Amino acid sequence: MTTKIALFDLDHTLISFDSDYAWNEFTIALGWRDGDAFRQANDAFYAQYRNGTLNIHQYMRFATEAIRRKGATESIAAHSRFMSAIVLKGIQKPALDLVQGHQKAGDEVVIVTATNEFVTRPIAAAFGVKELIAIELERDAQGEVTGEILGTPSFREGKVTRVEAWIAARNLGWQDIETTFYSDSMNDLALLEKVTHPVATNPDERLRQLATERGWRILDLF
To answer: Mean pLDDT across the chain, nearest whole number?
Structure first.
């Protein structure tokens, strides 16, 4: 039997907002960051992300600055409040139904995101998804985040690399599986082109145009 795998991007795909940006806004509200300085730098990084020039390693040092200063214990407690105040209220029924539909059909469901695992693992759990491929954060001997990325970042072509490693760890190859990938962004083009069924989900303008040209399914959840 062919194994069916449903892969989901997270930000703007399963949730209608950027979880990394929302978390950073939450840390500003906590007084962990200077809001004006953060937003100016973050806007510059986001523009680079949109045009495909983002240096993911530089961005990850920036994005993890607050949790590195505060430490694991305080950061985890704050993230729990973030989940209650922001994320759980932002999970919409159409997205939850889509994930659960694949699960009920017996598909293996995996969230594949370029946002780091500190931010996204609890969000994946809120969707009832155990398998998460996210940017893994390097930690020191005390378990504290260093700001560096561990292994290949699940970003752009790195998503294909990480998914291939996940598949290989299960003694499977692309020829053994039927894959569906839901994504909103042209940054995920490499993985969209690799899977059996690409689905442009809440797509940005460029991806919507490409999906239309190629006859890919377009799904607007929100």
So the answer is: 96
- The predicted model gives 52-68 an average pLDDT of 94
- Grouping H, G, I as helix, E, B as strand and the rest as coil, residue 116 is strand
Domain holding 181, by residue range, is 3-219
* 140 phi and psi angles, rounded to 5 deg: -85, -175
Separation CA 5–CA 163 (nearest Å):
11
Q: Rounded CA gap, 101 and 130, in Å?
A: 15
Q: Is the pLDDT of residue 76 over 90?
A: yes
- 176 as an active site residue: the answer is no
Distance CA 40, CA 96 (A): 33
Q: Active site residue: 11, 18, 184, 188, which one? A: 11
Taking each continuous run of H as one helix and of E as one strand, the counts in the chain are 11, 8
Phi, then psi, of 3 in degrees rounded to 5: -75, 130
Distances (CA, A) of 188 to 8, 94, 103, 113, 149: 11, 22, 23, 10, 19
CATH number at residue 40: 3.40.50.1000
Q: How far apart are CA 63 and CA 143, in angstroms?
A: 18
Establish whether 9 is a catalytic residue.
yes
Task: Please report which confidence band the pLDDT of residue 70 belongs to, taking 50, 70 and 90 as the band edges.
Answer: very high
Split into its structural domains, the chain has a count of 1
Both tokens of residue 174?
């692309």
